Amino acid sequence: MSDARIKGFHAHVYFDAATQEQGRTLCLEAASRFKLAMGRVHPGPVGPHPDGSCQLAFAPSVFAELVPWLAMHRRGLVVFIRPITGNDLIDHSDFAIWMGAVRPLNLSVLSGSDTVYDIPED
Q1: 11-43: b or e for each residue (b if 16 or more CB lie within 10 Å)?
Q2: Model pLDDT, residue 108
Q3: What number of helices (H) and strands (E) belong to the chain?
Q4: Which of 1, 9, 61, 67 has its CA 20 to 30 A from that of 122?
Q5: Helix, strand, coil % (nearest 5) of the chain?
Q6: Per-residue model confidence (pLDDT) at position 106
Q7: How many whole angstroms separate alpha carbon 28 and alpha carbon 78?
Q8: 62 near 84, Cβ under 8 Å?
Q9: Do the beta carbons of residue 91 and residue 82 sit within 8 Å?
Q10: Cα dist. 48→18, 53, 56, 82 in Å?
């Protein structure tokens, strides 16, 4: 068991070429409804992520409203959610939350320490 403090969360909405617009629309709608920072839409794999994706960064206080909303509105898209504790390797593996299919992450690109992330404050 870990006593790591959760400083925030990242949700990555995954898509392919056929569902990229659906993923972008979902992220834009989430950004308009919740206090979060929407990242760029990546049409292909980036970092450890095996598919095209868009990142949503948010504070722990947003989790209880955003995550159920994503579950109800993802319409078949895979959503990967991970906490930000200071150890990106463990956050992407042991602490990962998946909606839909679990996708294979490239964990070899993670260092075990987080970079500084811009997370909207409570």
Answers
A1: bbbbbeeebbebbbebbeebbeebebbbbebbe
A2: 87
A3: 3, 5
A4: 1
A5: 30, 25, 45
A6: 86
A7: 16
A8: no
A9: yes
A10: 21, 11, 16, 12
Residues of the chain with pLDDT under 50: 1
Ordered alpha helix ranges (H), the chain: 20-33, 60-73, 88-92
pLDDT at 4: 74
Residue 101 corresponds to which tokens in the numbers above? 């299919």
Closest CA relative to residue 116, chosen from 2, 7, 3: 7
pLDDT at res. 1: 44
pLDDT at site 21: 97
Q: Which of 9, 13, 7 lies closest to 99 in space, CA to CA?
A: 13
